[in-house]
Amino acid sequence: MDKKPLIGIVICILLITNVSVVLGNTSKNPRRNAAGMEPNLAPNPSFEEGDTLPTGWTYAPDTNGTFTWDSNYAFTGEKSVGVLNLTNAYPYRVMWITSDFIPVNCTKTSYMFSAWFKFVNVPEYQYTWISFQVYDDNYERIGGGGTGRGSTDTEWHQIMTTTGYDDGSIKYVKLELGQRFNEPYEPDPLNEVRFDDVNFSIWNTVPDTPTIRGETQGRVRTLYDYTFTTNDPEQNNVSYEIEWGDNTTQTTDFHESGEDVVVSHIWGVERTYRIKVRAIDENRALSDWATLDVTMPYAYTIPFMHFWMKFIESYPNAFPVIRYVLGG
Are 100 and 168 in contact (CB under 8 A)? Predict the structure, then answer.
């Protein structure tokens, strides 16, 4: 039983892109996903290893249908997994699932899950399906989601989806591959779908926490320049979201990773302000906030103030002009 309801859980399974696209096979290396990132966290991604089942994968025990693992329809390697004989019974799907939990860090990274698939016969009311199941640090399921795609021919296609970021509740993921069908139609039990070259790997990492350089003491109604800099692990372009501490905010254009970005600001009221800034990369990943305190105005003390006050106290009727300047 789920620890939390799916509705309202803001977790890494929220899809940035619920894409199911047909891509050219630019690389047949199963260690690399469409973004060219590695390493692949999916076990036995081309299903080459194993005895009676592919190592690291098993079939979901609560589903109906037939599970196959053979070399009849391999994409790039020697074997692929398949599902067929889907019957009209809840939960209307058959699936392969990873045996072990895959550790993830969804506070700092998002992940891409992709697989190549092939329908043996042209599907009718049936579609391929990939999904995540996500778990907390007690290995209890706290959510899940996925994406599906049909195909009008029987060639190999790629299906993929990317994840967002969460608040740290997600610690592990399990991957699912399978077939579903649309109600109220009857599925074709002979329509088999094959999967090969699975990839689950880091797709995007949040930018580093920015640095802020500039004056920390100044005067009101004076324009000051501040320099913001960050590095993005994937060298994506970044913009900066700036809060100036006076209820004004500003977001810059995108700039190259590592580039110094100079932004000017002016304050109109004497007080201490806290500048906050975070970086946003092209994939909407947010860095942690950086802060810098700025005091307006810079306090100026008349030299030897204590000496002059004592001196005037000793001669109360002398130097009336000086007494007036010093507020006496």
Answer: no
In CATH, the architecture of 57-205 is Sandwich (2.60)
* Interior/surface letters 67-90, b for 16+ CB within 10 angstroms, e for the rest: bbbeeebbbbeebbbbbbbbeeee
What is 58-102 written as a DSSP string? EE-TT--SEEEEESTT-SSSS-EEEEE---S-TT-EEEEEESSPE
- Collapsing DSSP to helix, strand or coil, 306 comes out as helix
- Is the pTM of the predicted complex or chain greater than 0.90? no
Q: Which two tokens stand for residue 253?
A: 């254009």
Q: Note the pLDDT tens digit of each residue in 199-242.
A: 999 999 999 999 999 999 999 999 999 999 999 999 999 999 99
Terminal-residue alpha carbon distance, the chain: 78
Q: Tell me, what's the pLDDT at 277?
A: 98
CATH code at 211-296: 2.60.40.10
Instruction: Give Cα 101 distance to the centre of its chain.
Output: 19
* pLDDT over threshold 70, residue 62: no
User: What is the predicted pLDDT for the residue at 164?
Assistant: 81
> Using alpha carbons only, what angle is made at residue 209 by residues 204 and 211, rounded to the nearest 5 degrees?
140
Name the band, by pLDDT with cuts 50, 70 and 90, for residue 144. confident
Task: Identify each DSSP E strand in 271-325 by its residue range.
Answer: 271-281, 290-296
Burial environment of residue 305 by CB neighbours within 10 A (0 to 12, 13 to 18, 19 or more): exposed
CA 185, 188, 189, 191: dihedral to nearest 10 degrees? -140
Q: Distance between CA 193 and CA 93 in Å, rounded? A: 12
Element (H, E) at 323: helix 320-325
